[in-house]
């Protein structure tokens, strides 16, 4: 997606600068006008810098991708193993705690079509979606938290033990290893499947979606919560945040700057809402409904099998 040329911020800055530098500016303008012109000049310059920093495509970190540029599963697993102990806190800080709201929206959608059989939270990570499902769904539903990274599952199990006394409903979640590329589940055995911030890390989206289609029963539901492409005006600021701020701060929190360089690339390259909806349809799902969250930065797709 191309950005508009940076003429607007440059022109605004230049005009304000010229007005401020005219010899008679002190007689012509009040102090308030001076202040407004200075602020506009500064905003124009900062916005121009943001536009410059956000142009072009970032290339994937080579060691994290396979030949075709898709995430390499071995590297992805080892990355999540490394960051697992600091995953939750880094997520909270880097999303300014908004990730909690996004997962709440996902759960609210699941509850609107209450599943009564087996519910799988794929790429469950440290288990937050699985825990919220266990709190929200009736005791009759079986909940499985599945991930291919044992380090992340260990974090989920530790949290489950800690919270179980206060909330016994969490004890019924079964955390198990499973690869989204070859799910260890029988055909049509799942009532609803959620995948939150996991799909973009899978080696092949089409294969992962085909597997989800295979295991969800006819009439069952799929919910995909994932980063998406934000609204056009918000994109430059967002890219600067992803490319420069996120790896730096996350690197300080986890001691693994490289991991977050890969993660921000995977976010930058992920399809927009319409394109992901098309891929979900292509996998055989119907009634695909994308919902934009937070200036389009995150998308929640709901589909029926
Ligand atoms: C960004 S975390 C998301 C965790 C959690 N769902 C959340 O909302 O915080 C991505 C997770 O996807 C898992 N993952 C990546 N590829 C996978 C695959 N092929 N099969 C299963 N899990 C996978 C990783 O191990 C990691 O735990």
UniProtKB/TrEMBL annotation:
Superkingdom of this protein's organism: Eukaryota
Keywords: Membrane, Methyltransferase, Mitochondrion, Mitochondrion inner membrane, S-adenosyl-L-methionine, Transferase, Transmembrane, Transmembrane helix, Ubiquinone biosynthesis
Membrane protein topology class: Peripheral membrane protein
Catalytic activity field: a 2-methoxy-6-(all-trans-polyprenyl)benzene-1,4-diol + S-adenosyl-L-methionine = a 5-methoxy-2-methyl-3-(all-trans-polyprenyl)benzene-1,4-diol + S-adenosyl-L-homocysteine + H(+)
EC number: 2.1.1.201
Keyword flag Zinc: no
One GO term of the biological process aspect: methylation
Binding site for S-adenosyl-L-methionine: 126, 147, 179-180, 196
GO molecular function: methyltransferase activity
EC class: transferase
Location(s) in or outside the cell: Mitochondrion inner membrane
Gene3D superfamilies: Vaccinia Virus protein VP39
Pathway(s): Cofactor biosynthesis; ubiquinone biosynthesis
Transmembrane spans: 34-54
Record carries keyword NAD: no
Classification via InterPro entries: SAM-dependent_MTases_sf (IPR029063), UbiE/COQ5_MeTrFase (IPR004033), UbiE/COQ5_MeTrFase_CS (IPR023576)
Alphabetical list of NCBIfam families matching this protein: MenG_MenH_UbiE, PRK00216.1-5
HAMAP family, per database record: MenG_UbiE_methyltr
Purpose: Methyltransferase required for the conversion of 2-polyprenyl-6-methoxy-1,4-benzoquinol (DDMQH2) to 2-polyprenyl-3-methyl-6-methoxy-1,4-benzoquinol (DMQH2).
Family, as annotated: Belongs to the class I-like SAM-binding methyltransferase superfamily. MenG/UbiE family.
Subunit: Component of a multi-subunit COQ enzyme complex.
Annotated protein name in UniProt: 2-methoxy-6-polyprenyl-1,4-benzoquinol methylase, mitochondrial
Organism name: Paratrimastix pyriformis
């Amino acid at each position: 997606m191309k950005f508009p040329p940076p003429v607007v911020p440059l022109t605004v800055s230049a005009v304000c600068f010229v007005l401020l530098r005219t010899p008679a500016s002190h007689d012509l303008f009040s102090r308030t006008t001076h202040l407004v012109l200075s602020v506009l000049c500064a905003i124009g310059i900062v916005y121009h810098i943001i536009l410059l920093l956000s142009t072009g495509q970032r290339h994937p970190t080579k060691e994290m991708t396979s030949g075709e540029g898709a995430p390499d599963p071995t590297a992805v697993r080892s990355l999540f193993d490394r960051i697992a102990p600091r995953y939750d806190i880094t997520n909270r800080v880097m999303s300014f705690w908004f990730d909690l709201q996004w997962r709440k929206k996902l759960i609210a959608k699941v509850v609107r079509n209450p599943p009564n059989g087996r519910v799988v939270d794929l790429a469950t990570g440290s288990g937050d979606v699985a825990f919220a499902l266990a709190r929200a769904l009736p005791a009759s539903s079986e909940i499985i938290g599945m991930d291919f990274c044992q380090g992340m599952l260990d974090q989920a199990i530790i949290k489950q033990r800690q919270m179980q006394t206060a909330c016994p409903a969490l004890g019924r979640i079964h955390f198990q290893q499973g690869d989204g590329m070859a799910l260890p589940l029988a055909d049509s055995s799942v009532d609803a499947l959620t995948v939150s911030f996991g799909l973009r890390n899978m080696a092949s989206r089409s294969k992962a979606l085909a597997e989800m289609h295979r295991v969800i029963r006819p009439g069952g539901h799929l919910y995909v919560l994932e980063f998406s492409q934000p609204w056009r005006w918000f994109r430059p600021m967002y890219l600067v945040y992803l490319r420069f701020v996120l790896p730096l701060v996350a690197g300080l929190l986890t001691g693994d700057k490289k991991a977050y360089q890969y993660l921000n690339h995977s976010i930058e390259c992920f399809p927009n809402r319409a394109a992901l909806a098309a891929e979900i349809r292509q996998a055989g799902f119907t009634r695909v409904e994308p919902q934009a969250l937070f200036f389009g930065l995150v998308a929640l797709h709901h589909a029926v099998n």
